[in-house]
UniProtKB/TrEMBL annotation:
Protein name in UniProt: S-protein homolog
Main localisation: secreted
Coiled-coil regions listed in the entry: none
Pfam families registered for this protein in UniProt: Self-incomp_S1 (PF05938)
Tree of life domain: Eukaryota
Organism classification: Eukaryota, Viridiplantae, Streptophyta, Embryophyta, Tracheophyta
Length: 135
């Protein structure tokens, strides 16, 4: 009786480990591509990160691209924000928001055109957003 109970628990634990491992491997990954469309003569500085991961500082010439790929967590709360600087401007934007972007960008990169009045997601139907409020 005890041997059968132990076997059932062991089998359940192994099953859960396999199932959880499969779920982790099947996590959705989103690609983000950022384009400097500020102005034909303006260099764009940017620094993107999440609460857990810093992607470092980048500098984009006009119309130059830079991007990253990120796995979406199981709670679907993955968030990456970027700090953009050019000339005397200093702006913030949440560049990857799982609930906003996961369905539009599931099969194609989330392509963001960074413009003076705010970022525009070009993937799917073009949609422009305001800059985050300065804090």
């Amino acid at each position: 009786m005890c041997g059968s109970y132990a076997f059932n628990i062991l089998f359940s634990v192994i099953f859960m480990v396999i199932l959880f491992g499969s779920l982790c491997e099947a996590r959705l990954r989103l690609d983000v591509d950022i384009i400097n469309d500020i102005d034909p003569n303006v260099q764009l500085g940017l620094h993107c990160k999440s609460k857990d991961k810093d992607l470092g500082s980048q500098s984009l010439a006009p119309h130059q691209h830079w991007g990253f790929r990120e796995a979406i967590n199981v709670w679907e709360t993955t968030l990456f924000f970027c700090h953009f600087k050019w000339g005397s401007q200093d702006k913030w934007f949440d560049i990857l928001v799982t609930r906003r972007d996961q369905y539009v960008c599931k099969h194609h990169p989330c392509v963001w055109s960074i413009r003076l009045d705010g970022p525009c997601r070009l993937t799917g139907q073009e949609k422009c957003y305001p800059w985050n409020a300065n804090i």
